[in-house]
Each structure stands twice: as C-alpha cells, then as structure tokens.
Give the backbone structure.
Amino acid sequence: MTADHGQLTVPPDCRFDLDVDPRLRAGVDLVAGEPRVRYLYTANVSDVVAVWRGVLGDAAVVMTRDEAVATGWYGDVPPAHLERIGDVVVICRDRYAIMASQTERHESALIGMHGSLTAVEMEVPLITLRW
C-alpha cells in the first residue's frame, strides 16, 4: 500500500518571485520552506510582515510565528522547537506560490506544487486492492 498527498498546478501568473521583487527580500535574512508555505527568518518581523502582506494581498496569509502557532496548525510546539518555525510564516492560498527563480532553480521549474491548505494538497486518497 502507498499513499501521497495531492498537488495543484501553479500557473505563471500566480507566482511571486522573491529573487526578482526586492520588496520580498528586504529585511529577510533567510528563506526556507516550499513555494506554497514559506518560513522567513528576520530581525525585523513587523516590517517584513507588513511588506509581505502588502505585496501578496489575498494571495497568502502572512503571520508571525506566534500567530501561526496560535492557529494550532502545528499542534503543541515545545519551546525548544519554536525557533524552527520561521519568524514569519507565509501560507499561500488558491493556486499562488512564492518562487525563488535564481536560488531555487529546480523548484521554480515545477508546475505541480503542494504544501499549503487546499483540500487537494491535504487529502490523501486510499486505494486498496485485494487478491
């Protein structure tokens, strides 16, 4: 038996590129995660949250680490593990993604992506065969 989550197609007009848009790199020390869910590490949390919310608008939920943990999405997070979650968490909606065309060339070439909160990404189908 095997199972895997689904993927969705992210069209070119739904891609934000943080290697092209300097507003998305401003004040960000490190970017982690996948194109559909990004973790941003920064000393300027409130500034980065404000800029990313302004640039992405309704394409993503942009929140601080504390806000993200408070949603319960991660379950109970031991204090020793908090720093693994980005200072800023960006969760893409619909078919949007945040690419890094220069620093993540292979990932940026993908058409199908996963990792966010749409049903197609979260549901894992189960198919069983009996002999």
About this structure: The longest helix spans residues 45-56.
